TrEMBL record:
Biological source species: Eleusine coracana subsp. coracana
Organism lineage: Eukaryota, Viridiplantae, Streptophyta, Embryophyta, Tracheophyta
Keyword DNA-binding listed: no
Residue ranges annotated for the CBS domain, each copy included: 70-128
Name of the featured protein: CBS domain-containing protein
Keyword Electron transport among record annotations: no
Amino acid sequence: MSPTSKLMDVMSRPVQVATPDQRLSEIDAFFASHSGLPVVDNESRCIGVVSKKDKAKATNGMESTVGEVMSSPAITLTHQKTVLAEAAALMLKEKVHRIPVVNEQQHVIGKIFRIVIASLIPVLHCYIFA
């Protein structure tokens, strides 16, 4: 893997998603192993992300809907045009741990995680400062 690898080659898939009308109780089990998931509208377009931090802020607890607590608009990356170095820069700038990867229709087709980026820090340093 290199800083110029396309996200299509390194992204995680398939991706579980949530919808704005789901209750947090419906997606709570997901948070046992993941820190967040993309939120999609009725046309499967990525409109936000719901994270453990968002869940913690829910005023109605587990009865709150995803739409009430999600972070929106979604910060996304495209699968063919974006390389890991760009993903790393965006994650640092936006202070996020994961970014949904979308296709031309804004449908979620994968996710890139900070842990993938972290594994490349020595290589990215050489890439950026070369």
